[in-house]
Specification:
mainly beta; disordered N terminus; eight-stranded parallel β-sheet; Pectate Lyase C-like; 30 strands; about 5% helix; disordered C terminus; eleven-stranded parallel β-sheet; 4 helices; about 350 residues
Length: about 350
């Protein structure tokens, strides 16, 4: 069976209409820098999405490099953001911590090139970038909403590239994420399926801040971890908060992953509270003989519990969700998104 989720056929999200191809009744806006679309800027398109809509809105982005600091506000829900041609729509900005803008000093949260705050979002083929370089924390993509799905996207930057900042559920399939230090971090429940994770510096891949009592934090399944030339000393993760949870299942770990695997961030107490585990990983960085003793290899029975139904279930969070969100099995009558061919849908 290929993959943890068995989602080669469809993804169910949120509440609303059914998508098999673009419906004539589905609102759509087109972004094109040359003026050939509905709007020239992505932010204009985001602002045009109706607040709290019961219908899905498509934001189609034509090829181009859009240098904008973007926010899709929490009132903007049920939105499909799609590159007209995968990989050709680049959303970029260059804020970073310590940068002064007007009377404000940028911090990690406000450094984000793009912040997605709404619920029930689908993003396909988009590149998110923070081009500030190695100047400190500089977020490319920040997600705070619940039920947000990405496919075939790239999230590019250096330190703190992808900030899963909320307490919701996020799904990434076949995406590319790159960075230097803690470049995948935050408190959300996130499932990475067949993603490519590239380290650009000797440092740390993840820094989870999972809330106490959550059953899941960051889950990587069938992902490939690689590194730039010369990078040879990378930890899989360290705990930003004491109850950090990060698990790698069936991943290919390159030789840049250190034998110890994990780091306690100079927080010995976190060794008792954090949950760091692996399951049937392969590659030169997967050996467990020298792993830190407070990490573990999941048993077969434990690994069997890492299904979409459990990870995205209503009880996966200590705070609880109002309903299950199950990308490959069942969900409220909603959007059906055939992951076997996004481009054939629109």
């Amino acid at each position: 069976m290929k993959g943890l989720l068995c989602i080669c056929s469809f993804l169910l999200l949120g509440c609303g209409g059914t998508i098999g191809s673009t419906s004539p009744s589905m609102p759509e806006v087109v972004v094109a820098a040359d003026g050939s679309g509905t709007f020239r800027s992505v932010q204009e398109a985001f602002d045009a999405v109706p607040d709290r809509s019961e219908l899905w809105t498509v934001v189609r982005v034509r090829p181009g490099r859009y240098r904008e600091k973007l926010v899709l506000k929490s009132e903007k829900r049920r939105v499909i953001i799609r590159a007209e041609e995968p990989g050709t729509a680049i959303l970029t900005y260059d804020d970073h911590t310590g940068k002064i803008v007007g009377r404000d000093t940028i911090n990690t949260r406000t450094s984000a090139s793009c912040s997605l705050e709404g619920e029930d979002l689908i993003v396909e083929g988009i590149t998110f970038e923070n081009s500030a370089g190695r100047v400190g924390q500089a977020v490319a993509l920040q997600v705070t909403g619940d039920r947000v799905a990405f496919r075939d996207c790239r999230i590019l930057g250096d330190q703190d590239t992808f900030f899963a900042r909320g307490i919701g559920r996020i799904f990434l399939q076949e995406c590319e994420i790159e960075g230097t230090t803690d470049f995948i971090f935050g408190s959300s429940i996130v499932l990475f399926e067949r993603c490519r994770i590239k380290s650009k510096k000797d440092s740390y891949v993840t820094a989870a801040s999972t809330p106490e009592g959550n059953r899941f934090g960051f889950v990587f399944n069938e992902c490939t971890l690689t590194a730039d030339s010369g990078v040879a000393r990378v930890h899989l993760g360290r705990p930003w908060r004491p109850f950090a949870r990060t698990v790698f299942l069936r991943c290919v770990l390159g030789g840049h992953i250190l034998p110890a695997g994990w780091h306690n961030w100079s927080k010995p107490d976190a060794e008792r509270t954090a949950f760091y585990a692996e399951y049937r990983c392969s590659g030169p960085g997967a050996g467990r003989a020298q792993r830190v003793l407070w990490s573990r290899e999941l048993t077969e029975a434990e690994a069997a519990g890492y299904t979409a139904k459990e990870i995205f279930g209503a009880r996966s969070s200590a705070a609880g969700f109002t309903a299950d969100w199950v990308p490959a099995y069942s969900a409220p009558v909603s959007v059906i998104l055939f992951l076997s061919g996004f481009s054939s849908l629109f």
